[in-house]
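TL;DR need structure tokens for one chain.
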Amino acid sequence: MMDDSSLARALADDLDGHFEQLVRTYQDRLYGFALRLTDSRQDAEESTQDAFVRAYRALERYPAERRRELRLRPWLYQIALNVVRNRVRRSVPTLVALDGAVGNGLAGHADEQPEAIALRAERWARLATVLGDLPSRYKTAVVLRHVQGLSYAEAADVLGQPRGTTKSDVHRGLRLLRDKLEPELLVEARNA
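>> reply
TL;DR here they are.
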């Protein structure tokens, strides 16, 4: 697997020959990012596909030197963020599966007690709900930094704002999460 700078150089030399490597490297990360922002698997899949289409079209127009110097990770996240924002603005109706097939978080934990699995799944679901309820500015910053693992500098590039503003947004987002979740955790601890 190539690092970002090697991949950027490869794309500069042969875009068509190496674009698939770019997709394989980033598809899961961008999908996870879009899923956190949209709360919809279908919207996340479509947003991820659209982001790669836009990335390819942009790379086609860029001269080789610009492709070679491109910081791929923040650039791709910026494209994905813009695609998600555009989808939210369009407000496409959400489709609901009629078969009721929804992941329950129980797969792959055969060595755990069902109660522990259910409790963990419930906590993750609650965290996802509270994260989804944050104002968009803070949610996006927290997801980029703590879910996707971008540095503050990369997250700031994606968000198009100074690093200090990004740090502040992440801090405020985490504080809002803590404020919402701490009372529940205290009640859980008392009842345990």
